[in-house]
## 1
Amino acid sequence: MTPVIALVGRPNVGKSTLFNRLTRTRDALVADFPGLTRDRQYGQARFAEREYIVIDTAGIYGDEEGIDALMVEQSQQAIEEANVIFFMVDGRDGLTSTDIEIAEHLRRGEKNVVLLVNKIDGVDADQVMADFYQLGIPEMFGVAAAQGRGVSHVLDAALLPL
Ligand code: GDP
Ligand code: MG
């Protein structure tokens, strides 16, 4: 089976930037991958001779209603289809309450979660990483999706066990 990675997180953290970088905008032929539906954006990608599928999602908004009400169907479906979740946060914004709610939601699922702290260009990476450490996701990586910085480390770690 081709491994599937879902990109989830708040809007504007850089999910689509990473998606485009990984797939170079080549859309997957969804029909070739049974079990995947068409209402999300799928891309086909390759890393170190390894084919995989990436799912981009529109993003999870947070407010006082709580994440279960707000976890949009699209993100939930992507999570269910994926072998591993790339949970992306914004290193410039720092940790937000919505990030904490998303982390709690993901922890209740059984899928492997990798935390991607994006936009570490131009910030104090060590300080920002320490901030997000309290989300309790041991696999965390600082990346700059716009420049591709750190991305190969993430793929190495994420695809190896799949
Ligand atoms: P999405 O809503 O999560 O899909 O986020 P987008 O991929 O649309 O990106 C939101 C904004 O963040 C855009 O203006 C991107 O150019 C910017 N962005 C994405 N990655 C980076 C990065 O690594 N560094 C910086 N500084 N900006 C980034
Ligand atoms: Mg997007």
Note: The chain has one domain: 4-159.
## 2
Amino acid sequence: NTISVIGLGYIGLPTAAVFASRKKKVIGVDVNQHAVDTINKGEIHIVEPELDIVVHAAVTEGYLHATTQPEPADAYLIAVPTPFYHDETGSSHKADLSYIEAASKAIAPVLQAGNLVVLESTSPVGATEQMAAWLAEARPDLTFPQTHGEDSDIRIAHCPERVLPGHVIRELVENDRVIGGMTPKCSQAAKALYKIFVEGECVITNARTAEMAKLTENSFRDVNIAFANELSVICDKLDINVWELIALANRHPRVNILQPGAGVGGHCIAVDPWFIVDSCPEEAKLIHTARLVNDGKPQWVLEQIRKQLDAVHCTHPAKTRSDITVACLGIAFKPDIDDLRESPALGIAQQVATLGCKVQIVEPNIEALPAKLQADNVSLAPLHQALTQADVVCVLVKHKPFIEHADQVRESKHLVDAVGLLG
Ligand code: SAJ
């Protein structure tokens, strides 16, 4: 059996490699020639613990190869991005299905009767049906479940990925999977495919419910983080320590409040709830508000930093902006990873850099500053140096090395602790 994975990013590549590690022939397809070349050398173009070892073994043992052109296979897994875009009014966030459309059109010429096509990309409700329609349009000689039900030539399902970045290899194997076929036979075919490596349970539903399940999981987390973030802003106004408050409230047996932070980053939780809001704008009031609360948090943190800058000016009137150094502790989108995608901390650091002060970035998980932060007044610094030289210290991500040095951070005179490092 040959499996083809379309899209060799943070989800597609680990999935392809794990199938290959079970001695299945896997064809990885990506439009990015650099990614394809890197993988064929047995190397990886993304950062994820253990992934390098699994990919290296899969390629050298001959089970995985990458290409830019789809080749015939028995099953196709589509794991391409589904970002959002703003419509003409600029107010609504719409799912961009163009990568799914392009992937469907790319595999259509090599599809054969008996094939299974699984959409893994997180998608708005209806996207799997849309994918099936694109495939049917490109291959009128084949039959599809939307018109031929269980008798169709091609089986189609949605099986959303649910792995946590940083733990992908383990979670791919251990997590339960939601399998949403367009018909029961489609579900059974997809379940048989995932059972090759999934040790968790593969729970069957229909495609629309599977799409909504994934959006629901991430919206649940977003709404709960928004609750914590809103509390942090309220507590600041009421002069209450929010970290102590949450720890106290969480002693209640049925209360489990998450942690306030610099905002919600990454490419999932800050995106997926918008797909629900776009489908049901009138009804999804709470989900919409949670998005606005979380998206507004970096601006609030920035205000706190500005207040500390003003405080430095008050105590040292002779200092100009360019004499002041601000240390930003952490720019990744969450603790203990190097992933800067959609990172609120990175956005805050960028804004601080435009204020005219010197900025020292402490990010133990990266070796060079991203292009967005390359400016004369910005440098990457070790923690000790930044704590010694900075007038204002802002903790934006709760990385382990910062927790270990919390006592030194606490000595800073002008401190913004967005993540409760000091409790
Ligand atoms: N965050 C907080 N406070 C918290 C928890 C998280 O501010 O108490 C912030 C983080 O700092 C980060 C953001 O939220 O900026 C998201 O981080 P996360 O760890 O909650 O989630 P992701 O984006 O790394 O991965 C999520 C996971 N979904 C859920 O936990 C419901 C993962 O299982 C999904 O597979 C992934 O989204 C995805 O790809 O959809």
Note: The longest strand covers residues 2-6.
